[in-house]
Write a structure and sequence with these properties.
The protein has 7 helices and 19 strands. It has about 350 residues and is of the alpha+beta class. A hairpin with a 5-residue loop joins β4 and β5. α2 crosses α6 and α3 packs across α4.
Length: about 350
Amino acid sequence: MKKMVRALILVIVCVMMTAPEAEIQAKTKKISLVLNGRKQRTVTISNSDKKSEMKIKVSKKSVVKVKRIKKSKKIRFTAKKKGTAKVTVCWKNKKRKKKTSVYLVKVSEKQNKATKKTLTAKENAMRVFRKQNEYRTAAGVGKLEWSDELYDFLIYRMNKSGYDEHKNLNADTRDYFGLYAVYKRLLFAENMLTSGSDSPTEVMRRWTKSKGHKRNYLDANHKCGAIAKVSTMWFAIFWDGEKSDFANWRDYKLKMYSVKRFDTSTNSFLQNCKIAYYDVADKKNRFSTTIGETKYKNIVLEVGKTYRFYETAMDGNYQKANPVSVTVEENASGEIILSN
């Protein structure tokens, strides 16, 4: 009997010793803060009386700062350095009864989840380009290919001419690509926009509001292009040819020639003459040009290739010119003269 009494007393004592601890554990809440991320967190003590005093005790003030927000039910935790601290808040509820809340605050230097990568200006421009392709796909138009070379040209143009409303597009094209612009007959379409937003959705929304811009980015003839941003300027460029047209454009060896039409009967150079020419190794692709009032026409040819020139239309007062074949040499004369 005595043994049973002793055992019962022992059980009661154990319960009395563990009960308060269980109560404290139930009230303890965990809070995580990040020095290079979410440094602050606000907690509302819902049952507290905002008029009553609130006592806050922090075990390690060097780790976290805790402050009541004026006379409200809210307290704010602010991370100071890496570590762990216990925060005890004593307050009274609306019935004026004393209550205690305990918070275990952990401050870390890195977020548990992977930190979001900061995009470069080019990477963000490519996001807008992909969004533009989504609009083209939705309209039943083929996707554009991204061109790094055209992106570099846009950066050059934006820094050189700024938001010029397309006035210097052709001049900038010639300045940047040099003789290649004339040789390849580069003629671009372009969209422009001023916006501080980096959101692909917002940029495309703005371009879509303009009928001209929308028509530009949905043009089925465009095959490649790029988008770039400098400061608050957004530019988009479109090219009807292939992306490969710009792959090695700097490696081309080119030479400019002046094409003239000479008439032997009058011993003079003529104007308003229509001339055609082609690479003898590629007869299918033929080019035509007109000699105007200047009595010459500048064209750009590739060094090492042989071209055939002929007159396609003539004035009835003159005899048709004879065809001329020219092999382009880097140090040769810069004139091609068609004569009868």
